[in-house]
Amino acid sequence: GVRPNHLNQSWIRPRIGSYCNSTFRKLRMETVNLMYLLDPEGMLKILELALLSAAVACTAQYHKDADISNLPEWQTNRLSLFYVVFITGLVTAIFLFVSFLFNLDKRCGSPKGFTFFVTLFSLTWAVFCAVSSGLFGEVVLSLQEDKWDTSKNERIQWRYQHAQAAVIIGFLSFLAFLVDGILHYRITRSTQ
Questions:
Q1: Among 30, 91, 152, 177, fewest CB within 10 Å belongs to which?
Q2: 136: nearest Cα among 80, 88, 91
Q3: pLDDT digits (tens, 9 = 90+) for 148-164
């Protein structure tokens, strides 16, 4: 006779499928912290990501028609510092956002230690944003002295406005990181 294939029995498949689906759903719900997106920390991190991205984009628009090496050395130094601070901050903020969104902060070491790291990073980066924005602001002031702000040339106006916007957004980033640092400091203090 023919042996029946027990794996093809209809009562086994639905149970295995429903077990796998419910386990996957439970695992997925435990790994993604969607409430982080609605918490003040999550919204602040999204704001930081937007501000850092906008500052880098505005700075890129400032020199898009001119090679950085054609700028005076002091402008190149300030522009390079601005890029280093804001791109490094953006990469680190993305890492932190993903870490909190997927609860990696709870899986890697102590959550309190991770929160303390975020506090230190945010306060340090607030200072870096303020310093690099202030130094890049000197570039904007020199452009203003060169009458870029009143130029009839639309390309020069475009570049000046984006340099000015980058500085303003840079100082807004300073405020966002400062608030983030204070918020995470309070979280660190409350978990002692």
A1: 152
A2: 80
A3: 888 898 888 888 899 99
Alpha helices in the chain (DSSP H): 12-31, 40-62, 73-101, 104-107, 111-145, 154-190
Counting other chains too, the contacts that 113-119 makes at CB distance below 8 Å and 24 or more residues apart are 115/184, 115/187, 115/188, 115/191, 116/184, 116/188, 118/180, 118/184, 119/181, 119/184, 119/185, 119/188
What pLDDT, in 10s, does the model give residues 17-72? 444 444 444 445 567 889 999 999 999 999 999 999 999 999 999 988 777 777 88
> Residue type for 19, please?
Y
Measured between alpha carbons, how far is 111 from 187 in angstroms, rounded to an integer?
Answer: 10
Largest Cα–Cα distance in the chain? Answer: 98
Q: In terms of Cα–Cα distance, which of 41, 181, 165, 19 is closest to 99?
A: 41
pTM greater than 0.85 (yes/no): no
